[in-house]
Amino acid sequence: MAHARVLVLVAAALASGCSESPGRPGAGSDTGVLLVDGGQPSTDGSSAPDRAIITPAPPPPPQAVDGGTSPVPQPDVGTSPTPKPDTSAPPPPPSGSCDPTFTGPFCTKQASGRMMITGFDGKPAGAVPTLDGLRKYSLDALNYIRARTCLPPLTMDACLNKHAQEATNYGMHAYFQKMCFNAAHGYGKTCDCGWAQENYGASYASQGCTWKDGIHTPLCKMMEEPKGAGHRGNIESTKWKRVGIGIKASSSGALWAHEFAP
Fold this sequence. Notes:
Blueprint: E1 8-10, E2 33-36, E3 51-54, E4 107-109, E5 115-117, H1 131-148, E6 155-156, H2 158-167, H3 174-179, E7 197-204, H4 211-222, H5 230-236, E8 242-250, E9 253-261
């Protein structure tokens, strides 16, 4: 299976609302192109809120590199006022309605420009939930997509959660490369907790985006990839049984890491 190291960071900084920008076809780099809200390229390599980040095309299978350890500025998690919003998700489609041959589309573009997982949670975002609430919502969204093609749900794993949360403090895939995807760990074969693969996504904007968009939009972009490839291959794999979820969110978006294991 092709390794899914490429970052999916979706541009969402148009004044008219939260909408994604196209990727750069043929980009062979694992580095996203950052655009500030005015549409000018950023050169500082940051991925802070209020920046649009364009999705690069998937690169060739990854090589071992020296993962960076510079933290990336991120919004705080779990600072929302009480009462917390209801983040319970609707149940996955009944088993009789799933279709193993379904290939998409998995998402619908709203009038606002937002990409939303079709049939999954049409409620307003409300206040940012706690970390546990964000993880639950993200897991429900992931498993809802899997259920569309009759795949069993992934189970959240506490050990993988620890690594996933730490990954959100690093640049794209830097922590994964440092702790798992390297020669010492057989490039994902002998990692802690059975950890083997990672998907990494984010969506922020100064106007129009919410923490829910930060979860939906990258997943929607991943599911536009060819079936069995890259991020989509991880999401739909029958090999993975467990997932760790690290996430940081604000009222204008979210950044997250999904760590997969058998």
